[in-house]
């Protein structure tokens, strides 16, 4: 097995992302994907019945709407949405996030629809 000696520069990877709400895989960790995305506007309400979802805000501001209330994150802050909890990410300004999820987790969870996209390698 070959080992890469090159670190992943998050800012460099983010500069390659043009499309909003499209997750891009930048690394793997066991059976998990480390993904980046740029967000702006409101996503769809959805759940992930089989997994938690980790959001880390790199830049901007992210509101994660929950039925129980909102969680507001700024740069350097993270929040874990527990499995099965309905949520809706909202970014009033362009916001860059890092997500950690099991391989194959769809961005729209069990909701589906036109915004559903599998993570693409970057």
TrEMBL record:
Pfam families: Cupin_2 (PF07883). It comes from the Bacteria. Signal peptide: none annotated. Residues 41-99 form the Cupin type-2 domain. This is Cupin domain-containing protein.
